[in-house]
Specification:
Helices cover about 0% and strands about 45% of the residues. It contains one helix and 41 strands.
């Protein structure tokens, strides 16, 4: 059963869509850049990113690599990552500034869990020096956003009535825009020169019953041939090739099936795409299902057969845990690490942060510290607006938050959660003028993402003063349910464990992995606030 049905019925097979792109953009294979100062470190280790970045689409523009990922109900959506070597990545911005696709993405009468930004496409158009993001929302329509720099500002270019499911955008060598999309039945659309309208769409391939489901399209033109890269969720990768133009006919070849992956306990690398380095080398970037943490990007070199088909280079019959690093020009600078300390300096959030659904922007601020004012009166964290999330670093990592709770009001709940469809948290409860630090578990959803449990307090302690440090440790090694533990400190040095270990499940159906989450919501009346002055994500 494909993801389309899985998301509608909460049953089916895992799927996703992962990265790619040929040449410097996703255009025809581009002329290699200057190959001076090419360097190659000894080796890199998979996964190249041990954080949840699924359905990545990757491109190269000059000497810089960019990638876009799925974010479902998190806002802003579609993060754009940047790298100079395909191995070390930073988050540069988001292509979808706000999920303005309906009230459910505002937690206004409905909820958008496991909807929103799915497998989508990132491309660069040299003719106007513009980045394009394209993706469908809720099987209803397709949205296109553009920017001249990945940091933004990104703005909506157009809305197209055809929902391009799991789309791959190609900027052809003559500057024509094409989109490959579909599930099992694969189609190609041609867009108008300005990218605002569909001028033609045509079915180009029907997946043989012996293969089953194919989706997650990525679209390339390489050496005059057209290629559509497709995944068989969640254990295979196939490629279609046409020598007769973008509308085919296409022939199919298997790229991989049931290949051992580089993460112990994780799945088969799949739903990925191709990218060419400045020196002409090719790489395939795929994701590995690795719950409870999510889907992690892995990188492998690719060679080509004499008749134009890609071959993944294996190590002992498997996707390698390490390979020689790509030979690339010396990076102009080090990228910003995906872990470390954030003191919320300045007046804007750094792009590592994403809200659970759209925030109420009148209820939070950054000014050398993060202030979260209560935005929702509810006893259900899954309904609370302005919950701010951060990806967990694998295989294990710890988040530590310094929090001033002196402005909380009676009934308020604030703290640090391990957030998914089954959640737990450590934080503050203010009742009758007294504040306690508590550990709460039993926050649960059913398969339709309706709340089935709002949480049970299982441990507590006094919270003297107005400042406290909260800590969550997460083990996200895949293959089994893993423990998350919570502790607190009144001095920032000595931490006291609170409550039992929380079991983080490894079911895939929520798609997004566990996240650390900062929250503050009311259960009685609005008006309270907390201030976060420091967040640190660290590894052992």
């Amino acid at each position: 059963m494909p993801r389309r049905q899985a998301l509608a019925a909460a049953t089916g097979l895992v799927t996703g869509t992962f990265l790619p792109l040929a040449g410097a953009s996703r255009t025809a294979a581009s002329t290699p850049a200057e190959e001076s100062a090419l360097t190659a470190a000894a080796e890199y280790t998979n996964p190249v990113i041990w954080q949840d970045f699924a359905d990545i689409d990757v491109i190269r523009v000059g000497d810089t690599y960019y990638a876009s990922a799925s974010t479902m109900h998190y806002s802003p959506g579609a993060p754009v990552l940047r790298s100079y070597d395909l191995v070390n990545w930073e988050i540069a911005g988001h292509s979808v500034p706000v999920l303005d696709f309906g009230a459910k993405y505002d937690l206004n009468g409905a909820r958008g869990y496991v909807r929103g930004i799915w497998a989508s496409s990132l491309a660069y158009r040299p003719s106007n020096r513009t980045f394009y993001w394209l993706g469908q929302i809720d099987f209803a329509r397709t949205y296109v956003y553009t920017a001249t720099a990945v940091e933004g500002p990104w703005s909506r270019l157009t809305t197209i009535s055809t929902p391009y499911y799991d789309a791959g955008l190609l900027v052809d060598s003559d500057d024509t825009l094409y989109v490959a999309y579909g599930n099992t039945t694969i189609s190609v659309a041609q867009l108008s020169p300005d990218g605002r309208n569909q001028v033609r769409t045509q079915q180009v391939f029907t997946t043989p019953p012996s293969v089953g489901t194919l989706e997650g399209a990525r679209f390339y033109k390489i050496n005059g041939q057209y290629y559509i890269f497709l995944t068989r969720p969640a254990n295979g990768q196939y490629i279609l090739k046409s020598s007769s133009g973008p509308f085919g006919p296409y022939t199919m070849r298997q790229v991989l099936l049931d290949l051992r992956g580089p993460i112990p306990g994780g799945g088969v690398p799949h739903q990925g795409g191709l990218v060419r380095t400045q020196s002409g080398a090719w790489y395939y970037m795929a994701f590995v299902d690795a719950y409870p943490g999510g889907r992690m990007p892995a990188l492998a070199p690719v060679t080509w057969t004499s008749d134009g088909w890609p071959v993944v280079q294996l190590v002992n019959g498997a996707w390698g845990t390490s390979y020689p690093s790509p030979a690339v020009p010396t990076p102009p600078r080090q990228v910003t690490p995906l872990i470390g300390v954030d003191t919320f300096d300045g007046t804007t959030l750094k792009p590592r942060w994403e809200w659970n659904h759209n925030p109420d922007n009148t209820k939070w601020s950054v000014d050398n510290g993060l202030t979260l004012r209560t935005a929702t009166v509810t006893n259900d964290l899954y309904w609370a607006r302005n919950t701010l999330t951060h990806r967990i670093q694998g295989p294990t990592s710890t988040a530590t938050v310094q929090l001033d709770h002196s402005a909380m009001r009676d009934g308020d709940r604030a703290g640090l959660a391990l957030l998914r469809d089954s959640s737990a948290w450590i934080g503050l409860k203010r009742v009758g003028g007294t504040t306690r630090v508590v550990m709460v578990n039993g926050l649960t959803m059913d398969g339709n993402w309706n709340t089935t449990g709002t949480g049970t307090e299982v441990a507590s302690a006094p919270a003297p003063g107005g400042r406290i440090w909260l800590r969550a440790n997460a083990d996200i090694r895949p293959g089994a349910a893993r423990p998350g533990t919570f502790s607190y400190s009144t001095d920032g040095t000595t931490f006291t464990r609170l409550g039992p270990a929380f079991s983080m499940g490894n079911d895939w159906r929520f798609f997004m992995g566990y996240r650390f989450a900062l929250f503050n919501h009311a259960t009685q009346a609005l008006g309270g606030a907390v201030r976060v002055t420091r967040f640190e994500l660290s590894t052992p």
